[in-house]
Amino acid sequence: MKKKFKSLSMSVLIVTVAAVVMSGCGSTKEDATPATSTAVTSTAPASPTPSPEAKKLSKEEQIALDYVNIYLNGSDAEAKKKFLADEVREDVQQLFQLGVEAVPAADELYGDPEVMDSVDYETDGMKGKLVLVNSSKGELIALVLEGKLGFVFINGDDEQSKKNFAGMKKEFK
Q1: DSSP 108
Q2: 169 vs 12, 105, 117, 144, CA distance in Å?
Q3: Are 104 and 70 in contact (CB under 8 A)?
Q4: Per residue in 109-133, pLDDT tens?
Q5: pTM exceeds cut of 0.90
Q6: Could you tell me if 155 and 162 are in contact, meaning their C-beta atoms sit under 8 angstroms apart?
Q7: What are the counts of helices (DSSP H) followed by strands (DSSP E) for the chain?
Q8: Buried b (16+ CB within 10 A) or exposed e, 121-156
Q9: Cβ atoms < 10 Å from Cβ of 99
Q10: What Cα–Cα distance (Å) separates residue 145 from each residue in 39, 48, 89, 125, 162?
Q11: Quick one: how far is CA 97 from the chain centroid?
Q12: Domain 8-24+57-169: CATH architecture, name and number where available
């Protein structure tokens, strides 16, 4: 079972990371910045300030949101490297390194990401959570094991990604 999970995990992770990297390839910081942009003088984070009624996120949910905001949507390579070092499992960091320099085009952003649900998950004696995130681009499921991001399931274009995503989405009741 452990070998099957690792094999499946590595396959899906490679496809997911490759898709993210390829979507960012060819983009530059200039491409991602609209020509009519104005200078921003604030140093406040780009994400909206949560309202008092906003749900308090668990550590796993925050990691999933940070993955979207920093790694997928971000253009700051140093921030991505810090996220990888601090929040991604060491055994998969090398795969995520592929996307550190990628800068997504405006139409590739996961806009308005929001945690929809999270459920406890256990595999091979490791405990964690599956976190379902919805955005303007669609849904993704982050697998956070023992406090670190281990895997992300994206409902991609290929059949294997769709199948793996659907399998994990069944965990949310």
Answers
A1: G
A2: 15, 27, 10, 15
A3: no
A4: 999 999 999 999 999 899 999 999 9
A5: no
A6: yes
A7: 6, 4
A8: bebeeeebbbbbbebebebbbbbbbeebbbbbbbeb
A9: 24
A10: 40, 27, 8, 10, 22
A11: 13
A12: Roll (3.10)
